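We emphasize that the prediction below concerns an isolated chain of 164 residues; any contacts that depend on oligomerization or on bound cofactors are therefore not represented. The input was used exactly as deposited, without trimming of termini.
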Amino acid sequence: MKVHLLCKSCERPITKVLTPFSDAGSDVEYYYLKNRWRARKKTVDPRDVLLTFEDGLPLVPEGTAYDASDNLAIFNPLPGLFDVSQSWFNPTDILPHIGRNEMWDQGVGCCGTTIVDATPNRVCDCGMAVGFEISECYVWNVFIGDNRTTQWARVNPDFVTPAR
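Result of the prediction step, given as a token string:
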């Protein structure tokens, strides 16, 4: 199954087409390697890492959406949204029409952005705030869609991601 995240206001895709995965089943294991948490599927090559908890690197591989709902108590990059179901994906999967709002420069950092007061820092060109990007050198890089303003949709196999 392939999915993408949509803006609830204008129903345009926010992300490229993604493959969802979850560790709700027993096929994912967490392990600690070189002072970092990682996750991988138990049934595949052990080098096939699903999540990389490494500062300055994307948490989720490009082209995937991770359902983080079961692990927020352990690995929550947005403590202010602890009780909100979260899906995480790679910031490179955000489409070009998703811009930055005034919160972009409010984060603390030197080469990217962080979250301030659990306020979204990415906005659809229709004006709706759609999510939170964390892209700093000293934290994991991740995009988290705002469940209040976005929704997941299955993708038709013939769907082509719009250029703009």
